Amino acid sequence: MAVLRTLLYLFVYPGLLFLFAYSTFCEWFDRKVFARLQNRMGPTHTGSFGLLQPIADFIKLLAKEDVVPAAADKGLFRVLPAFGLAVVSAAGLLLPVWNFDLAVPSFTSFQGDLIVLLYLLSLPTLIIFLAAWSSTNYFSSIGGARVLTMLFGYEVPLFLAVLSPAILAGSWRLAEIAAFYQAKPLLILPNLLAFAIAVVAVQAKLERCPFDIPHAETEIVGGTFTEFSGKKLALFRLMFDIEMVVSSGLLAAVFLGGFPGGALVGFAHLVVKTLFVIFLLSLIRALTSRIRIDQVVTLAWKYLAPLAVLQLLIIILLKGLLS
Amino acid sequence: MKFQIPIGPQHPALKEPISLRMTVEGEVIVDADIRLGYNHRGVEKVAEEKNWTQNLYLSERICGICSHSHSTCYVQGVEKLMDIAPPPRGMYIRYLVSELERVHSHLLWLGVAGHEAGFDSFFMYTWRDREVVMDLLEMITGNRVHYAINAVGGVRRDLDDLQKAKVLEGVKILRERSVYYFRIGASEPSFVARIAGVGVLPLEKAVALCAVGPTARASGWARDVRKEDPYAVYGELEFDVPTADTCDVLGRVVVRVKELLESYKLIEQMIHKLPEGPIAAKVPRKAKPGEVVSRYEAPRGENLHYIKSNGTDKPERLKVRAPTLANYPATVEMLRSGFIADIPLIFAAIDPCICCAERAVVLTSARSGEESIVRLGDLRRQALERHQKAPLKRNAVWPF
Amino acid sequence: MRIAAFLPELLRSLFKKPNTVDYPFKKLAVPEGFRGTPHLDPDMCIVCRACERDCPAEAIEITAVNEAEKRFRMVIHNDRCIHCGQCVDSCPTVPKAMRIDSLFEIADDSRHKMKEDWVYVRAVIKPKAPAPAPAGESPNA
Ligand code: SF4
Ligand code: SF4
Hints:
The complex is a heterotrimer.
Chain A: H1 2-12, H2 16-37, H3 53-63, H4 74-93, H5 113-134, H6 138-169, H7 174-183, H8 192-205, H9 217-220, H10 230-255, H11 262-287, H12 293-322
Helix pairs in contact in A: 2-10, 2-11, 3-10, 4-5, 4-10, 5-6, 5-10, 6-8, 6-12, 7-10, 8-10, 8-11, 10-11
Chain B: E1 2-7, E2 19-25, E3 28-35, H1 43-47, H2 52-60, H3 67-82, H4 88-116, H5 120-141, E4 150-151, E5 154-155, H6 161-187, H7 189-195, H8 203-208, H9 213-217, H10 225-228, H11 249-273, E6 290-298, E7 301-309, E8 315-321, H12 323-335, E9 338-339, H13 343-349, H14 354-357, E10 363-364, E11 371-372, H15 376-389
Antiparallel strand pairs in B: 1-2, 2-3, 3-9, 4-5, 6-7, 7-8, 10-11
Chain C: H1 7-14, E1 38-40, H2 50-54, E2 60-66, E3 71-77, H3 86-90, E4 98-100, E5 115-121
Antiparallel strand pairs in C: 1-4, 2-3, 3-5
Bound molecules: iron/sulfur cluster (2 copies).
């Protein structure tokens, strides 16, 4: 029974199958919202309402010719897309959907899984950097340098922002943090500032406008992905989609009270809350223009990080008051 | 570590082929170089083979965005050569289309600027509302891009009252929207951060490098052929030449939006003042021998056509100086100080129309200084030969 | 400087119908006087060749099939045609032998399929407007 359950975790929910299906749905949602915000139609014809468009795109990319540059580091170049996909999928397993028992820690839910999840979500950035560097192209190298520069910008505010609800809940375990806010929903409010900061940081992590600097097509062609084509590009795109699902799931678990109610009701919570976060992400994407790399660093260190520290202070004071 | 990155001839930011070779140090540009000649057009040669009427449509096809500018510039010259004056109603309709074209071109540019900066919503919205003016143009002339409204001696289509009313209505919507986009463009922090202080071209540089059009006006140099040398109906109309003194891309946005507002004013005046009468004059098929230079303020700057006639029904020579060509030296200057991220914006800010400015390429040998003209077929053969002889790059060298 | 200056407009669009048209399935009407594809009305053509001479794209080709029978063949190469409508302006007959309709979806996979030709006997109707002499007055007046 336990084996079956584990296999279910790994491959069905919240494992690979679910992540694949749900991430393509989220991409569709993102594209549709983005299009409607711009008074366009968005995907319309593949499947009803164009729901199958992301899958069609994925399959089409899989079928395309796959070119590896002669000067590239072939081993790294081949392995990285799959590795990136594996990392974000592994991160997806840690989302507290139904695979936990508050009383007993298990291998998908334990003290400190918040940190592990954040760490797993940082890895794709490094993978993208390595991918850019191994493809030996000027545009990719510039893109890779930009990826790292951005990482130093948004990572600290993100960690600080996620820290404050965890401190208030007094736990490093996602399931416990979520349970804490389910019990005291009013305490979600003091964390709003941290939520806003985290949304901006996640936007940067996902390299979406205004932070789509590493692959800004009008500046450096495809940036990090200039040399990637066919299957590898398809995997990278899927990686970003899954990363979007996982990071919005993380924000939902930490800031919006998680996914209570077992598998079914919890699933409804998951969908509603992640879509809400993704809607915010799309809104930011539609609202802004791409900024310059130096402006990202300034934004992160001048505004986001101090605000996150301020939020931490507020939370610590509040915790003192409450206890 | 310095290295050169090739922006173009194929690059997502460029819609037409040109090569910007940027020497960069990290993210900072240290040097810029522009190479032209990826497009051989032979327009001027073809013009020598066609009669005055046919050339009208040929000159219109020099550019897709300012098609009417080229055709009007040409037809002005031909009319001067033939010594005929088009009837006033024809003139008003012709320049009405000119101003509508300026509106569509500037709105298009606003969208492109948004797109180059990654501000896609701005791009989508400006282009959505640009459809209003495109529809007006289609209604008046019968087509969206190549209006073909000019005829030697006037215009080909008249304007009725319903159309006049529709134009006025459209202008009202457009004015409101332009003001709105100006507010957005000048107040959205992420967009302003990208364009303020970027691509600086000081006034003295603009003068020294002979910048034209909005690029010059954004550096505080009020150059406008419509004002300096009022041709056709512009002497009878009231309008200002907007300038900005910030000398950067933001200034170019401001100038263009203000020009839009001036154009709306001009359109309204033209509709109200539209005289009665015929729309075209009778013209001879042949022009007297002579030569003429025609100037026209296109949306991108001063457009110049030189026409020489030898008394037949075909020109002996037609020389076109598109405004983009005049702005290239200034572009190199603007690109020299900035980040990689600014390249598309700075380059787009002159509203480049690369193929309009391309003619033929004369190869000059670096050693002997000898000039040679190569036929396309030979060039292709040489390229193939060279490609076949070139050693296969097994171990490509990677500098890092 | 206003953060999120675009927000009201964007949110309004979210609940509006898209402004774009689902093109191949829905089509917008072209305005009256749209310049589409040129067509010949063979009953009216007096074979003055004004259209052939003024066509900037050399898209019109008139050849004699049988000089004695006054039979002619006109080919319009729609692949070369730039839809300027000059041929209509140049045509001297009343009503015009050359017409332009509002058809614009004429793309095809081969340029040879885009030709249209007519073989006809030259019309003998006297044009109400005088046919322009080859090097006389311009027809577009
Ligand atoms: S529309 Fe213009 S290009 Fe086409 S056949 Fe007529 S004259 Fe020639
Ligand atoms: S101009 Fe008119 S009448 Fe003359 S050949 Fe052409 S179609 Fe026939």
